[in-house]
Amino acid sequence: MTSATDADAAEELAGVWGRPFLEPPVDHGIAGALLVMGWMGDRPVVAATLAGTTGPGAPGQPAGVIEDAVGLADAVLSISNGRRFGLVASAHTSAALSPSAPLLDRPEGHALDERVLAALGHDASDIADIEPGLWRAAGACGAGPLTVYARLFAGRRADVLAYEAPAGVGYLVAQAAV
Q: What are the angstrom distances between the C-alpha of 41 and each of 31, 58, 71, 86, 173?
């Protein structure tokens, strides 16, 4: 699978965001999300990544990742003058939704999952009201990507196209309602 990179837009985004420009190819997290959305090959892509907050040795803390995500969203808005863009955010809501989940069954996992889904159904910006500690306790990697989504689509609800929690990990596919 291949997709062209819009190197000019990527370098501009990196500069405005204050992060280094990384040469393609994109990693599996980006490519997998694009494949699911059917975007491979026909549109140029600009990929960006945020520090991980879950998993062994994850370097990011939710509060810092959320702050970084706000900066990324603001940079996207800054460079989007006259450009059409789409956002594909790849993340899960919680890894603590059942006894077979990677982090077992935790009340925080269910609480976060419910809050994310409620925010998407009401106003994406409600995601910003989720406490950083809840993202960590729920074992969610979604704090950063969903914060970017919330900032870019504030005031809009999302249509949840699919939601499953196989093996206790919440995965969703949603799009901003038009």
A: 11, 31, 28, 15, 20
Residue-level pLDDT at 84: 79
Beta-carbon contacts of 131 under 8 Å, excluding residues fewer than 6 positions away, are none
SS3 per-residue string spanning 52-79: CCCCCCCCCCHHHHHHHHHHHHHHHHHH
Residue 1: is its pLDDT beyond 60? no
User: What domains does the chain contain, in order, with CATH numbers?
Assistant: 50-176 (3.40.830.10)
The helix-helix angle for 62-79 and 7-17 (nearest 10°) equals 130
Of the ranges 8-12, 95-99, 107-111, 172-176, which one carries the lowest mean pLDDT score? 172-176
For residue 174, what are the β-bridge partners? 160
* Angle in degrees, 0-180, between the axes of helices 62-79 and 143-152, rounded to the nearest 10: 40
Tokens representing 132 are: 């950083």
Tell me the per-residue pLDDT of 16-54, one tens digit each, with 9 for 90 and over.
999 988 777 666 567 666 776 666 566 677 878 887 766
Smallest CA-to-CA distance from 81 within 17, 145, 9, 6 is with: 9
Confidence check: pLDDT of 111 > 70: yes
Judging by DSSP bridges, how do beta strands 171-176 and 158-164 pair with one another? antiparallel
